[in-house]
Design a protein that fits this description.
With 947 residues, this protein is mainly β. It has 3 domains: 572 residues, Maltoporin, Chain A (Beta Barrel); 164 residues, no CATH class; 93 residues, no CATH class. 9% of the residues lie in helices and 46% in strands. The chain is built from 10 helices and 52 strands. The strands form 11 sheets. It has a 22-stranded antiparallel beta barrel. 49% of the residues are buried.
């Protein structure tokens, strides 16, 4: 929970919010201007640096509100950026389109990852609380799906390491979502989109924005509503064949399946005490062989989501341009829905003297599969995000300015999973043994089960017994009462922070002023998760145990930045038109993970003039371990079978968190070129090369690797401290490993495998190397006769994406491959648009291109045989018309109306097959639905009215 100190920040600075509220009251009475416009306030910096911005100094890509409208996407930020910026590739980018699997891990949240590496997400330049889902063990991320698209002024993306500027997680860069700072007038709008494919998929959104400014006070309020329908795997041909050959009703083991003409063996032969057949084969109800079932109708391909949000912001000039108060408030609530097929389980059905009522044999029947398809597992998540900021900024003399603010941010999640199987009642329901009055009766067709799902006041009740041999259509729904239940968990993540920065130009050199910035911040981060009692006790069949979690930490940080001009354009030096050197340094101290110190140095060089800018940087970065990895629960279990003395055995295994984890570290080098030739006005080309090496990723080693190394090297093994005899390594009474071959000798001498203990807690063991090129080209051609043309293309080329799972293993290449480790990492990928504008009309064509890849599933040493994955090409088109008119001419709807109609994915391209990594046999859709949209052709229409 937040510390007492951070709570006092909240109380002390809340006065600024009150001030902004008073300003809002004043602003409402202020006269509105006749001309509607967005008010752009003076900004000191752009994302990537705290210093006064310089053209071409940072690799910043800006996606503004017009770009979002042209993209034809109105769902969330992840979908917008994944489409328009190919740098967002790989499994680190998870959203609603990963509904079949990963969306359950993120509880409906949307996670961003530049170049598939740690990426910091900011809102209005400041940190946001991570998703509460992190308290369940998912990777730490900010849910960008909670930010309303309608309130966004622009998104600034820095594709270079800037940890020295912003701190933890900015290894690959920063995504800064900037909400509208001010607005004069009012605007309302909406969008409706639908797919003609199966599933009746549609999207709806609506928004309003209103604001006013009188030169001293500005205030804005915006509301947003969006809703997207779920899409099921059976709704698309590429994912409609999720066939399994086991774990569904009608199967017994791997050799028998119920005759398709029967719904239960009880329809053909006597059961219970009347049974006469000695085996399943003898009943005549089962066929020797295998059967299959297509589960695609039960799995969501795209999760459903309904979201509402409200945003307000205000600024007040207290002393002309010398002092300004500012504040903003954002509240967002989203309800998500995803679905998996019904939970499967298996029974050993008793026979003999006290048989189960539906047993068709005289003996026990093992491996009886059961899956009640009419009750799929439904994942409902209610997410609530709240954030407010209050602060002051101003100028000191003419060359210094400062800013200070308090921010409170919170993310709450309520997760409910319907139709979970309550394990304690399963065997009781199958055993039966009672009549309808509750009297014990041999093979009675009623069962005695508990009610209350583990509650302290649970009682026994009588209900119809469960027939585990029956197909779902023949199961009595009443027999599932007190068996099907709802698992629940509550999560909460919060962030209290106070930051301050001072910027100025302290000295003037012959080439110009030195720019510098110094500052710091204090943060308190907390994370907690509270599951229901049945989840904690492991009573839900097939579900992992989840214990309550509640931890917090404090972070203190200080930084400094400086930029020194070496030459000036006024000097007219050959090859040194302009040369600047920059440096940044940050110290960040965590109360749990220790201290990190990281530098960044850079060069900005214009050899001739502003037409060519070269930029180079060297930096170090870090990503602090998340609270769950540090302090989450540890689990004691048995390992998979592991060969020690020539025989495969199971040993005691402890897994889970590690309070000794250190931050992941990185070293980055980048070189970029910006071209803006005067001979071709309107052309801008940027190319940036990025080379990042990361070490200390958090992972586990694996029991087999630990055992093998310790057997070969003894105490010299890097994992020697993770193996012991007679107890958990390091515990009282345990015996450490001191010599090679000690484990084999122990077993040969009569020792028990159950007396061997392995600790495979999380460690900083993995590493990565990423080299890539980011390319952008924009060209605007203006003509008097036929209007204005704009061409733009952006692409990312992955030279390398190499992963080393352990310090003793090799680096393996993942670029150009589809894998379960990195997801889809194309060698290159481009998004291209062409737009024509004239007299209020605009026509846009867009193209997404992903080249062929190779599916190798796990990759690395465990790579599957290479399977070709086809290329992907999708075309978009939209037509927009903006007309200005008098209010009376459009029935009072406004002064300006903007209409847009469009089609995304004109050719109805579907994701290419990648069945090794996304195998339908394990309930996956057969393709990567994050990299490639599963929606297909989507028609949309939008309208915006300025009032």
């Amino acid at each position: 929970m937040p510390t007492q100190r951070s709570s006092s920040f909240r109380t002390g600075l809340f006065a600024s919010i009150t001030l902004c509220g008073a300003a809002a009251t004043f602003a409402q009475s202020a006269p509105a201007t006749d001309k509607q416009e967005i008010i752009t306030l003076d900004r000191y910096v752009v994302t990537g640096s705290h210093l006064i911005p310089q053209a071409g100094a940072e690799p910043v890509t800006v996606v503004d509100a017009d770009d979002i409208a042209r993209s034809g996407v109105s769902t969330n930020i992840l979908d917008v950026l994944r489409k328009q910026m190919p740098a967002f590739s790989g499994s680190g980018n998870i959203g609603l389109s990963n509904a079949g699997t990963s969306v359950i891990n993120t509880y409906g949240g949307s996670r961003l990852s530049l170049h598939n590496m740690p990426t910091l997400v900011l809102l209005n330049g400041r940190r946001v609380a991570t998703s509460g889902a992190n308290a369940r063990g998912s990777s730490s991320f900010v849910d960008v799906g909670m930010f309303p698209l309608a309130a966004i002024e622009r998104i600034e993306v820095v594709t270079d390491g800037v940890t020295a500027v912003y701190g933890s997680d900015a290894i690959s860069g920063v995504v800064n979502v900037i909400l509208k700072p001010a607005f004069n007038g009012s605007e309302v709008g909406g969008r409706y989109a639908f797919s003609t494919g199966a599933g009746d998929y549609s999207e709806r959104s609506a928004y309003f924005t209103t604001g006013t400014s009188n030169g001293r006070v500005s205030i804005i309020a915006s509301g947003n509503y969006t809703k997207t329908d779920p899409l099921f795997q059976s709704d698309r041909d590429f994912s409609s064949n999720s066939v399994v050959g086991s774990s569904f009703s009608g199967l017994i083991g791997s050799a028998w399946y119920l005759d398709h003409s029967l719904n239960s063996p009880s329809e053909l032969v006597p059961t219970g005490t009347s049974a006469t057949k000695t085996s399943i084969g003898a009943t005549g109800a089962y066929i020797n062989g295998t059967d299959t079932l297509n589960l695609s109708p039960y799995y969501t391909l795209l999760a459903g989501r309904e979201q509402t949000s409200i945003y307000t912001g205000a600024t007040v000039k207290l002393i002309d341009d010398k002092l300004e108060a500012f504040g903003d408030f954002l509240y967002s609530r989203a309800q998500n829905f995803a679905q998996l097929a019904a939970q499967n389980t298996s029974f050993t059905v008793p026979g003999g003297a006290n048989p189960a009522p539906y047993n068709p044999t005289t003996g026990n029947v093992s491996s009886v599969a059961f899956r009640y398809l009419p009750a799929p597992r439904e994942y409902h998540t209610d997410a609530e995000g709240l954030r407010f900021t209050a602060g002051l900024r101003g100028e000191i003399a003419s060359k210094w300015n400062w800013e200070s603010a308090y921010t409170y941010s919170r993310n709450k999640l309520l997760s409910k999973v319907d139709n979970m199987l309550y394990a304690p009642n399963l065997a009781l329901a199958v055993a039966g043994g009672y009549d309808s009055d509750g009297n014990a009766t041999p093979a009675g067709t009623y069962s005695r089960v508990t009610t209350g799902y583990g509650a302290s006041d649970a009682a026994f009740v009588i209900q119809p017994a469960l027939d585990p041999f029956a197909r779902p259509d023949a199961v009595n729904p009443a027999s599932l009462a007190n068996i099907l239940g709802t698992a629940r968990a509550d999560f909460r993540s919060s962030l209290d922070s106070f930051d301050a920065v001072l910027r100025g130009r302290p000295y003037e050199l012959p080439a110009g002023d030195i720019d510098m910035a110094v500052g710091g911040d204090l943060r308190s981060e907390s994370l907690d998760g509270m599951p229901d009692a049945n989840t904690t006790a492991g009573r839900w069949a097939g579900a992992s145990v989840f214990t309550p979690f509640n931890r917090s930490r404090r972070v203190r940080a200080g930084f400094a930045e400086v930029r020194v001009p070496v030459t000036s354009p006024k000097w007219e030096i050959a090859a040194l038109h302009s040369l600047d050197l920059s440096a940044a340094y940050r110290i960040e101290d965590y109360s749990d993970a220790g201290e990190s110190r990281v530098p960044k140095v850079g060069v900005r060089w214009q050899p001739v003039d502003e037409q060519v800018t070269v930029r180079c940087t060297y930096s170090k970065g870090f990503a602090a371990p998340n609270l769950f990895d540090l302090f989450g629960p540890r689990t004691q279990t048995f390992s998979n079978t592991t060969a020690i003395d020539g025989v495969t055995r199971q040993v005691n295994l402890q897994t889970g968190s590690n309070p000794d984890l250190k931050p992941t570290t990185s070293t980055s080098n980048s070189v970029g070129v910006v071209l803006e030739p005067k001979v071709l006005r309107g052309l801008r080309v940027t190319v940036d090369y990025l080379d990042v090496k990361m070490a200390g990723f958090v992972s586990t080693v694996g029991t087999a690797t630990i055992i093998q190394s310790v057997e070969q090297l003894g105490a010299a093994s890097p994992y020697a401290s993770q193996v012991a005899l007679y107890g958990i390594p390091g515990s009282a009474g345990s015996t450490p490993i001191s010599a090679p071959g000690q484990l084999k000798a122990f077993l040969v001498g009569g020792g028990l495998a159950s007396d061997i203990y392995v600790s495979d807690a999380k460690r900083n063991v993995s590493a990565a190397k990423v080299r890539c090129l980011d390319m952008n080209l924009d060209y605007t051609w203006k003509t008097k006769a036929v209007g204005e043309f704009e061409f733009g293309t952006t692409g990312t080329y992955f030279i390398d994406d190499q992963i080393q799972t352990l310090p003793t293993s090799l680096f393996y290449e993942y670029a150009g491959h589809v894998t379960s480790v990195e997801g889809t990492i194309p060698n290159y990928r481009f998004y291209t648009t062409v737009e024509w504008r004239r007299a209020g009309w605009a026509i846009v064509f867009g193209n997404t291109y992903v080249p062929p890849l190779t599916d190798i599933n796990a990759g690395g040493v465990a790579a599957s045989p290479a399977v070709h994955v086809g290329s992907y090409v999708a075309w978009d088109m939209s037509i927009a018309y903006t007309m200005a008119m008098q209010r009376s001419k459009i029935l009072g709807l406004g002064r300006e109306v903007a209409l847009r109609v469009g089609v995304n994915n004109l050719g109805n391209a579907m994701p290419p097959s990648a069945t090794q990594t996304f195998s339908p046999k394990v309930t996956q859709p057969g393709a990567d639905t994050g990299t490639y949209s599963p929606i297909g052709r989507l028609y949309y229409v939008s309208a915006d009215f300025k009032l």
